[in-house]
């Protein structure tokens, strides 16, 4: 199913299948999506879609509110050259992420059990966040984690226009530009790319 949309080498295909098994077998309710094809499109393809359309020069990524590893674990599998920090405030989710990274042999992943606003300042190239907070909240709580040429990719739903209006003065005051990519098929998603 996934290969009609993206190229997968044997290693990535194997790890995507392993990730599906880890998620389905987890005692945590990681996702309501159990169907493998739906999982592939709405979790795997959704996680990497933006980067297939717009390749970015990235080394250090922080995925805020990683939860079940979307997009963070998926990005770590698909882009093994990236170093990805998975951030979540819930301990049991962090333990799931640590176990998943270990089982998948992902040496480019580290897990941090913290709230983003409580993390020490860092110099990430990109902050990702899916289903976590509003645009204004995410920008407010993560600006100290991004270097002066860094960016954010927020995986948003149907309220994006409203969230952008709410965040307008903050975006302007910090000199942050925004671009939106909307997808309708085979899943519905608005990707908000913020950058200096």
* Named CATH topology: Rossmann fold
Number of helices: 6
Structural domain tally? 1
- Let me know the number of strands: 7
Global morphology: globular
Based on the coordinates given, report the CATH architecture: 3-Layer(aba) Sandwich
CATH superfamily: Vaccinia Virus protein VP39
Helix content: 25-40%
Tell me the span between the first and last alpha carbons. Answer: 37 Å
Assembly status: single chain
Structural class: alpha/beta
User: Could you name the CATH class?
Assistant: Alpha Beta
Which band does the percent of strand residues land in? 15-25%
N-to-C order of helices and strands: HHEHEHEEHEHEE
Strand order of the largest sheet: 3-2-1-4-5-7-6
Biggest sheet descriptor: 7 strands, mixed
Low-confidence segments, given as residue ranges, are none
Radius of gyration: 16 Å
pLDDT averaged residue by residue? 95
């Amino acid at each position: 199913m996934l290969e009609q949309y993206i190229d997968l080498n044997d290693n990535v295909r194997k790890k995507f299948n392993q990730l599906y098994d880890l998620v389905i077998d987890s005692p945590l309710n990681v996702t309501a999506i159990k169907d493998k094809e739906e999982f592939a499109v709405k979790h795997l393809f959704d996680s990497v879609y933006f980067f297939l359309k717009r390749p970015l020069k990235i080394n250090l990524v922080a995925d805020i509110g990683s939860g079940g590893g979307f997009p963070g674990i998926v990005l770590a599998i698909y882009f093994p050259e990236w170093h990805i920090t998975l951030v979540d405030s819930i301990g049991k989710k962090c333990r799931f992420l640590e176990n998943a990274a270990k089982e998948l042999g992902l040496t480019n992943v580290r897990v941090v059990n913290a709230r983003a606003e409580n993390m020490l300042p860092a110099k990430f190239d990109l902050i990702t966040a899916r289903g976590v907070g509003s645009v204004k909240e995410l920008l407010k709580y993560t600006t100290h984690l991004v270097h002066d040429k860094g960016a954010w990719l927020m995986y948003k739903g149907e309220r994006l226009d409203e969230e952008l209006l709410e965040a307008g003065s903050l975006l302007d005051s910090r000199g942050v530009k925004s671009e939106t990519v909307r997808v309708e098929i085979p899943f519905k998603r608005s990707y908000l790319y913020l950058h200096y």
